[in-house]
Design brief:
Number of strands: 0
Radius of gyration: 40 Å
Order of helices and strands: HHHHHHHHHHHHHHHHH
Strand content: under 5%
Shape: elongated
Mean pLDDT: 86
Number of helices: 17
Distance between the termini: 128 Å
Oligomer: single chain
Low-confidence stretches: 1-7, 28-47
Largest sheet: none
Length: about 350
């Protein structure tokens, strides 16, 4: 009995000691947490604010890294604020800023011009990577003032740089742009001539027409004939038709050549060439007509089988039918230099 009471008292004492120990441990944990909050959390908040102010100061001083960091910090909470910092970085040609501006303007519903601005920054990004297609778009955006301030001088400079590097689309654009400014503008002819030198059939037709009518350049029937025939070698039905028109009535030899080009144009599906071919056929001496028709048929078969070498058809016709003619120099700069202002 006494033993039972003794062990019972000891057990109760152990339980009480354990309870008070647990309470003291909890209190100690709470105190430590409070001390941690006082000595750790408050300084951390201060450090974050100091770091942010430091970034702002550096960003305002032109530091690209700080500008990009502030832009990234604000993207989810203040899109316009983020755009502000990315624009500053973009002024220093940061590709990362270009990427961010394209992305943010794509989803910016507050700015009615956001879509246009996204296109502009996409063009700036591509241009910074050396993509000629993007540079061409960028030049047009400057000219039109789309997504950016209108800057005609910068737009022309951007596209002209491409055109001088034989970018065909840029050359054709400049030719048309100058033509819109003034009918027969010499610069318009100059760029169309450069495009023709690159082998564009439509440019060749335009250049030949300019020489024929004296638009932006002095009239020259032989240069007009050359450029239509050069396009004819490339199997352009329109060029072949105009070759027939321009050769007609220049001389008897030119009349023979005119029939051959009319024949080729008809064979390639040009509807208007039928009547011209019939007129030329009626005007040619019967003694020569069969021979000329035979040459035309053989030439059609030859050109239909494969692409012909540059000037091969023109030289062949000059040999068979002796006529006054013109062939340009191979160096484009020699030919085009006379048209530069």
């Amino acid at each position: 009995m006494y033993w039972f009471l003794f062990f019972g008292s000891v057990f109760c004492l152990i339980v009480m000691i354990w309870h008070f120990h647990s309470v003291d441990k909890k209190r100690l944990t709470i105190v430590r947490r409070k001390q941690h909050d006082l000595h750790v959390s408050t300084p951390a908040t201060f450090d974050d604010e100091a770091d942010r102010q430091d970034k702002i100061n550096r960003a305002n001083s032109g530091n690209i890294t700080a500008q990009l960091a502030l832009g990234a910090d604000l993207e989810l909470v203040d899109q316009n604020g983020a755009i502000k910092w990315y624009l500053k970085a973009a002024e220093k040609n940061s590709q990362q800023a270009f990427y961010a501006l394209v992305r943010l303007y794509d989803y910016n519903y507050d700015d009615p011009e956001a879509s246009e601005k996204s296109k502009y920054w996409a063009a700036r990004l591509g241009d910074s990577k050396g993509k000629q297609s993007s540079t061409f778009i960028l030049g047009k955006l400057y000219l039109e003032g789309v997504g950016c301030e209108k800057d005609t001088e910068l737009g022309l400079k951007t596209i002209t740089t491409l055109a001088l590097n034989d970018h065909l689309e840029a050359q054709l654009f400049l030719a048309q742009w100058y033509q819109r400014q003034q009918e027969g503008h010499p610069e318009g002819f100059y760029w169309m001539l450069r495009a023709a030198y690159q082998g564009d059939p439509k440019a060749m037709v335009t250049v030949s027409s300019c020489y024929y009518h004296g638009i932006g350049v002095k009239k020259d029937i032989y240069k007009a004939i050359y450029w239509t025939e050069r396009g004819g070698e490339l199997k352009s039905p329109e060029s072949q038709y105009r070759s027939a028109q321009y050769n007609q009535k220049v001389s008897s030899s030119h009349n023979a050549v005119a029939y051959i080009w009319a024949y080729l144009s008809v064979a390639n599906g040009h509807e208007e060439a039928h009547s011209l071919k019939n007129d030329l056929e009626a005007s040619l001496p019967l003694a020569n007509l069969l021979t000329i028709q035979n040459v035309a048929r053989k030439l059609h078969v030859l050109m239909d089988e494969k692409a012909v070498k540059k000037h091969s058809v023109i030289r062949l016709l000059n040999k068979f039918y002796v006529r006054e003619n013109y062939l340009p120099t191979e160096d484009i700069n020699d030919e085009c230099a006379m048209y530069t202002s």
